[in-house]
Model the fold of this input.
Amino acid sequence: MITAIVFVEADVARIPEVATQIADLDGVSEVYSVTGGIDLIALIRVRSIDRVAEVVAERLNRVPGVLGTETHIAFRAYSSHDLEAAFSLGAE
Done:
């Protein structure tokens, strides 16, 4: 499994709809709205580099309102803890 982290610059007026359209793409597992120099971070999890190229270049970059992207390929994961458990309130 290949994980790619895509930094997305989006039309500020369209961030919610851009994020929703990206999240609906096959191969995209999560989309986050973030602060800083970029607007969204999309996590792509697919079986090959060719699929990363297909998802980013042929689909994500063509979503209306996407102004630019920067893609990073993850080499290794150092933590696999359950994020849901980390953010649950009052659960032990």
Notes: The chain has a mean pLDDT of 90. Residues 12 and 39 are 8 Å apart (CA to CA). The chain is about 25% helix and 35% strand.
